[in-house]
Amino acid sequence: MSETKSWKEYYDYMEQKTPLTIYYPICGGGEECITACPYGEKIWDVEPMKVSLFGFNQKVRLRPVMKNPELCKECYLCVEACPTGALRPKDKPANHPLLTLVYNTLKLPFKRRYNIKFVFRPEHVEKFRRNNGR
Ligand code: SF4
Question: Which residues belong to any copy of the 4Fe-4S ferredoxin-type domain (predicted)?
Answer without folding.
Answer: 62-92
